[in-house]
Amino acid sequence: MPSTRQGSIRLFRFAGIDLFLHWSWFLVAAFEIQNRAGRYSSITWNVLEYLALFLIVMLHEFGHALACRQVGGRANRIVLWPLGGVAYVDPPPRPGATLWSIAAGPLVNVALFPILYIVFMLGRSWGWAVTMPDALRLAESILFIDVALLLFNILPIYPLDGGQILRSLLWFVMGPARSLLVATTIGLIGVAAFIGLAIWTRSVWYGAISIFMLMNCWSGLQHARALLRFAKLPRRDGLACPSCKAPPPVGDFWQCGHCNQPFDTFATLGVCPHCGARYTTTKCLDCGAMNPIADWTVHNYIPTSV
């Protein structure tokens, strides 16, 4: 996944979301424009076609980011690069919030389809095939780009939107860890099929996409295994996160921001045993919410050490 800073150019900021463009986008754009130069009477139309691809991908990613912010999540960066775009979203750890944050991207493509289709059909009825053949061909290409991006993204292959939507739906009945495990396992099967397609078609692009999906799918699988291990940890009786009601695990899972040493914040009531730094709030390792230690539900809780 591309970095949001190294090798990226900040284009603008909208609704608190920074849009970055990776430098490699220009190289691929130049190659693709030249490679499709014979499709139109002028290369200007090829440039417009590639800019349309840029615009559709950008709108898709803003769909993710704005939906995530709508449900109370964090989303402030988008990076566009040759293989598509990445919206860095962090929705609340709830299946519904995650589902909406992911599904909003493809829904942008769905919303664009009738608009682009009407433009194409009007062009045909107005005789653009004779009077403005390049304009009609551009309208057809943009419509195809939108549909192709939609169909590709909803494939149930993690980390594509379809794979993450599948994970969100499974989350309702299987929980966060097992849903991710199932989604990434299915994703690996899909990646294997995509690698076979890349070999069969001898496509460099399919190969690059396959590698990208494989790396992210494998990373998701490892994260699922870590979540399963975390779920099996012993929990403290009498304490519960004010936000998600999950009891905290027992162990040194919190890191001191002063000395970087791990410690159990509930065993010491928020005091680092290594350097003495005191913390009045603590982070829930299940939902990520920060709450004052005093707000965690306490039922005759006695710390093991201070």
List the keywords:
306 residues, alpha+beta, four-stranded mixed beta sheet, two-stranded antiparallel ribbon, 54% helix, elongated, disordered C terminus
Would you kindly provide a written description of the structure presented here, covering whatever features stand out?
Among the domains are: 176-232; 233-306, no CATH class. Helix content is 54%, strand content 12%. The protein has helices at 24-35, 43-70, 95-125, 128-131, 133-153, 161-201, 204-231; strands spanning 8-14, 17-22, 74-81, 84-90, 254-255, 262-263, 281-283, 290-292. The strands form three sheets. A four-stranded mixed β-sheet has the order 1-2-3-4. The chain has a two-stranded antiparallel ribbon with strand order 5-6. β1 (8-14) and β2 (17-22) form a beta hairpin. α6 runs antiparallel to α7 (204-231). It is elongated. The chain starts with 7 loop residues before the first strand and ends in a 14-residue tail after the last strand. Residues 300-306 have low confidence and may be disordered.
